[in-house]
């Protein structure tokens, strides 16, 4: 790195333009770097789909003789280079290094990877600069439910790809220079994988939430009927939204006026609404599709409580947003929430799949407004102390500073 110029961070993210939790973390990282004034950013999105217009796909003969590996797009006002892969039908090919990616990252001083599983970092560990990996979970854990009972050839193929990706997850974790994890169990796993390395910086460093935008209301807005809110991409079966229907069914009679509202980029599946009708709950469920930020903040602020029913979450950014808005939360012990919530203090934790426990905690919050307000206030305090963008961003600045120092001294291995 030349003296007198700002360091350049190459931010590498799978399917940055598709939305979801990983791009949300990437946007936080962008704000960290841009707000510091110390870094320039170069954004690269790696194609994660089996088939697409970039790279070489077996199923796309037109790509065999004249492949195009890169394209330029704009994402939230920032220029992005999108990079495809060779033989993209094989998942492990998307994790490989390739010349087009190396060219896109040429001149970067640090590479920051943000991904759901670690395997994506394999694409850049040989690029030269030190690599920092922000990661939520492992592929074998994330896909546990999907791969549990394969019935078709496609199901078995996906499970085979998961087995390969699991090995590549471990390989990446042993080759990067820094790892930021989002939950306690992943911290323990990454530490065990690197127990023979003294040169890797491993931290619990989840992304932060904008506590200025996501904040408690000055006064509660009147709502026609109280509601429990859940926010997610509900086309993902890991979100287990059906658990909330069972909890709604189990609520005591005095809560018969309480509704269940979902909100997010994709609605619950048709089976969810079919189940609501079969339980006689159709008039108590509602979905708010693609709310903008102002709408989302108000949804959090006005809710009786926020419920996260997932089977697996690397973190649960929506949980942080709800707590920041001064809303009492109930979440399953599904990974991420375990490291955020102190059960009974700033929220409630219940076991995965336990509709009775979920209903019991929601009923307790409904029955005791004073306790609900106290838990909500402590939840807001947790955000301010541990998960605000300022606090979370400081951890990333420390990591990047240390990696730059290593790069200058030639100690990157």
Report what the structure shows.
This protein is α/β, with parallel strands linked by helices. It folds into 2 domains: 7-208 and 389-409, Rossmann fold, CATH 3.40.50.2000; 227-387, Glycogen Phosphorylase B (Rossmann fold), CATH 3.40.50.2000. It has 15 helices and 16 strands. The protein has helices at 21-36, 62-65, 99-104, 139-142, 144-147, 153-175, 184-193, 242-250, 270-278, 293-302, 317-324, 336-340, 355-367, 369-387, 389-409, and strands at 7-14, 39-46, 55-56, 70-75, 78-83, 85-86, 110-115, 131-135, 178-181, 201-204, 227-233, 259-266, 285-289, 305-308, 329-332, 348-350. The strands form 3 sheets. Strands 4-5-2-1-7-8-9-10 form an 8-stranded mixed sheet, with helices on both faces. It has a 6-stranded parallel sheet with strand order 13-12-11-14-15-16, sandwiched between helices. Helix 8 links the parallel strand 11 (227-233) and strand 12 (259-266). The chain is globular and about 65 Å long.
Q: Identify the strand order in the major beta sheet.
A: 4-5-2-1-7-8-9-10
* Terminal Cα span: 17 Å
Overall average residue pLDDT: 93
- CATH homology superfamily of the largest domain: Glycogen Phosphorylase B
Structural class: alpha/beta
Q: CATH class of the largest domain, anyone? A: Alpha Beta
CATH topology of the largest domain: Rossmann fold
How many domain regions?
A: 2
Give the helix proportion (percent range): 25-40%
Strand percentage lies at 15-25%
Taken from the alpha-carbon principal axes, the silhouette is globular
**Number of helical stretches of at least 4 residues:** 15
Largest sheet data: 8 strands, mixed
CA-based gyration radius: 22 Å
Name given to the CATH architecture of the largest domain: 3-Layer(aba) Sandwich
Overall strand count:
16
Low-confidence segments? none
